[in-house]
């Protein structure tokens, strides 16, 4: 029965993590003491539930692929004379691919989180939120109509808010979750307006039905093209916010304040399932509007290039990876904007596993660094502190290296196949978009390899710290700037005699990587001054490396589903066959040799970017080259110009392109000023008129009360005085 009708069991996929979340939450709420004693049972319940969901998704996928059919299983929800709304599940290749992605990444993150958060007091609360988060994403991808998608999007937003602010006692985490929540509400407001507009035109919320009606109305000229674009673009604001596309990307770097496993799940699955998935789902509706498609493609291209430039000199490990996600999802939005549905479906798959591997690897490094520098995100996530980690963390270093090379576009790793396909498609569509995609590929290789080199190569630097006068502590012998230059201790001492303004400038240019360890309840008070006796980061606990090893497989091989190694009877690769109900496969014929030849240009740019990072941050870095006599005498390299350019890039990256600053000046402060102005007008003008009327009535009544003594002679005098004409009246109006 299951094999014949797999769609009937689709409700089990989101229900499994939902039941796990509800069970964990109820037990921890009503039996808190028992939960503390059996806290590891939370993971024991969450992992099997996601495993079952993964199994059902996989079986449904293979059954659907065999018949290339699209199924819906619906129940009536609201039935009136005006509205007919149903809830249920939509089963097609896109739904099942996204379901497998969410469940596999979610299972890896859940297993990893058991060890990562085992010492946290909010362990049970974390797994309650995590399971609900996964259930919300799965409910979203199976939704057959816009209302159901919107409801599950709001659940995803609520869970994101709770998980980003999981450590809400930290002000930075509390601010980050509020920033993410408000920014996404802006996008969701536009999405709600767009849904209302689409229903106004088509009279339906069902995705398949409304797309057909909208295409028919626009093709027949029943809907004005300008009005059609005005209605089609607002829904795009929802994915812009959720997938961190320009200009609503500002929440993403701050969202790394949450636990690292949550960052992995958000960047690998949530931003795709809750953002890009919606655009892919209604792409048939948008595809008939060239203006809307152009806007989408340029938003994606701008985001890809902007995210790459912002990641170039980040010093925070997780924020560097966050900007990488922003850039890579920009590639996907670019592909959707040019109508490359297959490429847009392909890249989120390859990127998801690569990014999950990178983020979980970074979490392993951070977890180990806390044993050295104490619990301090600023220190444990600081890349200049964590050099040499590969020697003592070989599993993490190897898996992270694979997750680094994949987004760089190095064959045969996963992202090479999808990324190069998007670059080629964009080049055919528009030369400008092609150049944007190609340049971004070079930047991506540069900053990703920089992250790897600073984190895993070289020597471990955190144990070379000075505790005498920690406010100005430096490494003995040298310090490392963000741009890759080193400066000797003697050179630093020379700057101490400079004026304070010059010292501040020097501090801004040369960032010390020496810190003092602080006390942490779980790791103790770690204070070491001897570099040889200091602790070093070690490989993480037994439950954390296995998910990294498992994710290494799709990070390396997932891209092969889109490579046509063997010419089949259909002439299609596996991915094209899977998407047959949704795409026209004739466009994607090609063989492996042609693909590799066409990718020479993009791979060359990636190799160039890697080479630049190796020169700047490798063993023989740029600083060492500057000491060489031939380099000093070179007429082809202007050292001052190169240094000025480096500091410009550094300031641009660390200040996030100054976009947050302009938002604060022109939006936040303007809104505060307007709010205060409205408050002043309400308190002193509106309330002033009302209060003034009341006060005048009060004094008038009091005056009348004191004037009324009860004597008839007084009342008669007043009446005669009022009736008798005054001298001025007689002079002005003489009686004739």
From TrEMBL:
Belongs to the complex I subunit 5 family. Residues 450-682 form the NADH:ubiquinone/plastoquinone oxidoreductase chloroplast chain 5 C-terminal domain. This is NAD(P)H-quinone oxidoreductase subunit 5, chloroplastic. NDH is composed of at least 16 different subunits, 5 of which are encoded in the nucleus. The gene is ndhF. One of its GO terms (cellular component) is chloroplast thylakoid membrane. Residues 77-127 form the NADH-Ubiquinone oxidoreductase (complex I) chain 5 N-terminal domain. The lineage of its organism: Eukaryota, Viridiplantae, Streptophyta, Embryophyta, Tracheophyta. It is found in: Plastid, Chloroplast thylakoid membrane. Pfam families: Proton_antipo_C, Proton_antipo_M, Proton_antipo_N. Gene3D superfamilies: 1.20.5.2700. It comes from the Eukaryota. It catalyses: a plastoquinone + NADPH + (n+1) H(+)(in) = a plastoquinol + NADP(+) + n H(+)(out); a plastoquinone + NADH + (n+1) H(+)(in) = a plastoquinol + NAD(+) + n H(+)(out). One of its GO terms (biological process) is ATP synthesis coupled electron transport. NDH shuttles electrons from NAD(P)H:plastoquinone, via FMN and iron-sulfur (Fe-S) centers, to quinones in the photosynthetic chain and possibly in a chloroplast respiratory chain. The immediate electron acceptor for the enzyme in this species is believed to be plastoquinone. Couples the redox reaction to proton translocation, and thus conserves the redox energy in a proton gradient. InterPro entries: NADH_UbQ_OxRdtase_chlpt_su5_C, NADHpl_OxRdtase_5_subgr, ND/Mrp_TM, NU5C-like, Proton_antipo_N. Keywords: Chloroplast, Membrane, NAD, NADP, Plastid, Plastoquinone, Quinone, Thylakoid, Translocase, Transmembrane, Transmembrane helix, Transport. One of its GO terms (molecular function) is NADH dehydrogenase activity.
């Amino acid at each position: 029965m299951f094999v014949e009708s797999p769609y009937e069991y689709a409700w089990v996929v989101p229900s499994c993590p939902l039941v796990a979340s509800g069970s964990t939450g109820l037990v921890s709420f009503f039996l808190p003491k028992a939960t503390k004693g059996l806290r590891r049972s939370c993971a024991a319940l969450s992992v099997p539930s996601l495993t079952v969901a993964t199994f059902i998704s996989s079986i449904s996928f293979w059954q659907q692929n065999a018949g290339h059919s699209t199924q819906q299983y619906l129940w009536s929800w609201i039935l009136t004379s005006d509205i007919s709304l149903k809830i249920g599940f939509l089963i097609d290749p896109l739904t099942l691919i996204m379901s497998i992605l969410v469940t596999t990444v979610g299972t890896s993150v859940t297993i990893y989180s058991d060890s990562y958060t085992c010492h946290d007091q909010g362990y049970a609360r974390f797994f309650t939120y995590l399971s609900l988060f996964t259930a919300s994403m799965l409910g979203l991808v199976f939704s057959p109509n816009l209302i159901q998608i919107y409801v599950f999007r709001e659940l995803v937003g609520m869970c994101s808010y709770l998980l980003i602010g999981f450590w809400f006692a930290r002000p930075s985490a509390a601010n980050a979750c509020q920033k993410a929540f408000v920014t996404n509400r802006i996008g969701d407001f536009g999405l709600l307006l767009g849904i209302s507009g689409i229903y106004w035109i088509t009279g339906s919320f069902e995705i398949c039905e409304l797309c057909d009606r909208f295409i028919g109305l626009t093709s027949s000229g029943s809907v004005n093209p300008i009005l059609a674009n005005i209605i089609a673009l607002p829904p795009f604001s929802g994915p812009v916010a959720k997938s961190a596309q320009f200009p609503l990307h500002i929440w993403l770097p701050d969202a790394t304040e949450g636990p690292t496993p949550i960052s992995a799940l958000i960047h690998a699955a949530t931003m795709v399932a809750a953002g890009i998935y919606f655009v892919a789902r209604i792409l048939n509706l948008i595809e008939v509007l060239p203006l809307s498609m152009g806007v989408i493609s340029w938003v994606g291209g701008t985001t890809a290039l902007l995210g790459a430039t912002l990641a170039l000199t980040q010093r925070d490990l997780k924020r560097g990876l966050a900007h990488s996600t922003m850039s890579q999802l920009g590639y996907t939005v670019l592909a959707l904007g040019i109508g490359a549905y297959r490429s847009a479906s392909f890249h989120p798959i390859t990127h998801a596993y690569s990014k999950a591997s990178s983020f979980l690897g970074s979490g392993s490094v951070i977890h180990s660094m806390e044993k050295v520098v104490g619990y301090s995100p600023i220190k444990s996530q600081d890349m200049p502190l964590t050099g040499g980690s590969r020697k003592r963390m070989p599993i993490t270093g190897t898996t992270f290296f694979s997750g680094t090379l994949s987004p760089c576009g190095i064959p045969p790793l996963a992202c090479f196949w999808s990324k190069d396909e998007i670059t080629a498609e964009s080049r055919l569509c528009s030369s400008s978009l092609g150049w944007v995609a190609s340049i971004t590929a070079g930047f991506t290789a540069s900053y990703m390899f920089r992250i790897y080199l600073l984190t895993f190569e070289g020597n471990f630097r955190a144990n070379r710290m000075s505790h005498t006068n920690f406010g100005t502590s430096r490494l003995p012998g040298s310090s490392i700037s963000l741009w890759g230059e080193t400066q000797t201790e003697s050179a630093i001492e020379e700057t101490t005699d400079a004026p304070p303004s010059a010292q501040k400038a020097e501090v801004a240019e040369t960032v010390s990587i020496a810190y003092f360890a602080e006390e942490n309840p779980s790791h103790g008070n770690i204070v070491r001054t001897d570099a040889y006796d200091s602790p070093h980061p070690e490989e993480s606990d037994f439950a954390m490396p296995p998910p990294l090893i498992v994710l290494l497989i799709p990070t390396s091989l997932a891209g092969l589903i889109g490579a046509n190694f063997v010419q089949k009877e259909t002439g299609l690769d596996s991915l094209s066959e899977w998407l047959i109900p949704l795409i026209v496969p004739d466009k994607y014929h090609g063989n492996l040799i042609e693909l590799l030849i066409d990718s020479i240009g993009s791979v060359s740019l990636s190799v160039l970017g890697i080479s630049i990072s190796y020169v700047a941050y490798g063993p023989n870095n740029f600083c060492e080259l500057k000491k060489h006599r031939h380099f000093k005498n070179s007429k082809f390299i202007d050292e001052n110009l190169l240094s000025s350019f480096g500091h410009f890039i550094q300031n641009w990256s660390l200040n996030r392109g100054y976009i947050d600053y302009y938002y604060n000046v022109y939006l936040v402060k303007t809104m505060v000023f307007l709010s205060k102005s409205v408050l002043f007008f309400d308190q002193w003008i509106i309330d002033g008129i009302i209060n003034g009327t009341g006060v005048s009535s009060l004094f008038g009544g009091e005056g009348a009360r004191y004037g009324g003594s009860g004597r008839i002679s007084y009342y008669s005098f007043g009446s005669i005085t009022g009736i008798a004409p005054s001298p001025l009246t007689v002079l002005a109006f003489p009686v004739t």
